[in-house]
Amino acid sequence: MLRSFLRITILGVVILWSVYQSVNYLNATKSLGSLEEDPVTIWESKFKKLKKALPADVKTVGYLADWDIQDIEYSNGDQHGEYVLVQYVLSPVIAVRGSEPEWIIGNLTPRAYKKWWSTTQGQYEVTFFKHNLYLIHRIE
Amino acid sequence: MSLPIVLIYLIPVFTGSLIVHLTWNRNDPKLLLLKFALGVGIGIGFTSLLYFMFLFTHQSWFLVLLLGILFLLSMISLRTWKPFPFFERMPLTRLQKVLLLILAIVIILDLAIFISISLRRPHGAWDSWAVWNRAARFIYRGGADWQRVFSDEFHWLFHADYPLLVPLTNAWVWDVLNFETTRVPVIQSGIYLFGSALLLFSALFVFRSIGTASLATIVLMGLPDFVGIGSNQLADTPLALFIAATAILFCLYSKYQQPQILALAGMTSALAAWTKNEGMIFLVSSLIGLFVISYKNKQAWLLAAWYFGGIVVPLLIVLFFRFKLAPSVDLFDSGLVEIWQRVTDVSRYTLTLKTFAGEFFNFHRWGYNAPSFLLYYLVLRQKDNTIGSRGLLAVLVMLVIQLLAYFAIYIITPHDLEWHLAFSLDRILLHIYPTALFLLFSVTVAPETILFPPKGATSFIIGTR
Hints:
By secondary structure, chain A is α/β, with parallel strands linked by helices. Chain A has five helices and five strands; from the N terminus they run αααβαββαββ.
């Protein structure tokens, strides 16, 4: 008798809990953000003009961001996230960290850009884009 | 726009179902749904392998090839077709109807969750941008240069060494459509998510009862993390599907004793290795599962031959990818001395054990936990089962090996251990979740025998064939 009761109770709890969690999670998905503002799509649109300006035969670019500039504060998580997004958006161009390649994408806050420019003046040609983005070309 | 994409995906799904049916030509209406569910993964997996080889030809008639293969398999199926009743009348008890209704409600809720996540995150989650969809873009946009997807210029964050089942599937559908859309990865992830549910349901329907199948699927699809990760275009759900498919196929062999079923198990094991690096570990688990199945079996060599017959072609392609094209796996980048230092560091074991225990006691804070599943087993366990203890033992052994291997990977990981555990453990435990549920609901009594059992219910519900 007790065993039967226990079995029925467990079955009931399992079913109710699963339905409850499904409803709960459906509500929770709203916290993922609005339907219009997906962060990746926003990044894609930010890069549209810069991608057009990049010569078609370029296969690898450098990537400079605040984490590469000395004495500039940054959030490690944000820098990693932005790097991943930049690579995703630029595909099939590979974005390697640093300024080794001829063409470089700069994703620098104004302070970081000023600091970087002060150390490298004259060696690069820079095209400015909105959202703190720069297309940097090393002058041979 | 979504309808043409769904139609394109149906080509490999039907191809896979025909592969399953032709390999295991058993005419039984009860098996139709299970064969279809197995065909989903096998078809999509094989199509991605085919596209991988096709890329080397630099041709653009992949759709023609796919339709040709589907036509050929359909013709062979028709020639070997033995008529059988498609729909057998199966009277449902009131409880079964109620459970099916609850399952339908849960599936509708999950569909709403899937749509909500896909609309808010059309590009998926972090790993989707960093790894899976990025690789798909490199292959599709790269054109003749598609092999740059394996470039060692990539930062380790982008895991250029990861297998290509998911990216190649996106790439070939874009190729057929001739344009890129986020709906392709969205629908692919939906197929694996709901395909996993269908696989569990159809397997337990064959092995146990409609009530058990409904209950297990309610529990599977009631775990928010499983639905969330399955909606985010990651490769964890497809891997979970291939692991579950292999486990189910081992049990099907135990039940029907037809060795050709093991050829399908070989295929699903290889496709697991083609999905994620953890699938390579599963390949070893699956081999040990085969050993358990074949141990002291007079037909052991025959079973092994069927298994290897199924695994050999996909595995050769996976090995070609792994050793000829892909860069080295970042987990093994460090030298033997460093790995040994990590292996002998007791604090790593403590932290990993603690995190594993935490996850087992509360699956990603959703209130599901291993102790409650253990309680479920203890209260509802059934002494005898219809699947055959050897099949279930093989599944249990595979799951334990998979878990131990995951534990070992954390011990040797060169990345920050705390970070690695925090960002991956919940996901990788989901790899075994559908299989664990299959095992649990295979060894516990059917709900029909607990609530309002009709006369003769046991003989009808449990294993009519």
